[in-house]
Amino acid sequence: MAQQGDDALLEWVQSWYERHCDDDWEHQYGIAIDTLDNPGWCIRIDLNGTALEGRHLDWVEVETSDADWLHYRVEGNRFEGVGGPRNLRTILQAFRDWVEHCESCNGSI
Fold first, then answer.
1. pTM attached to this predicted model
2. Over the stretch 13-25, which tens digit does the pLDDT of each residue have?
3. Enclosing domain of residue 92
4. 31 three-class SS
5. Which of 26, 39, 74, 104 is 20 to 30 A from 33 via CA?
């Protein structure tokens, strides 16, 4: 069952994506969610053509247990996040937190 915070996070991600769709961007770039075989999740979010283009973030690694872990970075104009099988929300939240941090430093993105 989805929690209220999950709904808000999903709405935020959808809005971020929609803001960048301009009849061109979405044909080349976007958001990809996939699974890993260890098991876990992999999320890739293209930053080309956004105000976040050119940003960099070194790997952030949070490991609580074999099943509860998160690694993410920004490199090559792409946010890349991976995490354990129950960490999909955590990866999306890491992206949101990073975007909002960038906004607080440089205004609305």
1. 0.90
2. 999 999 999 999 9
3. 4-106
4. strand
5. 104
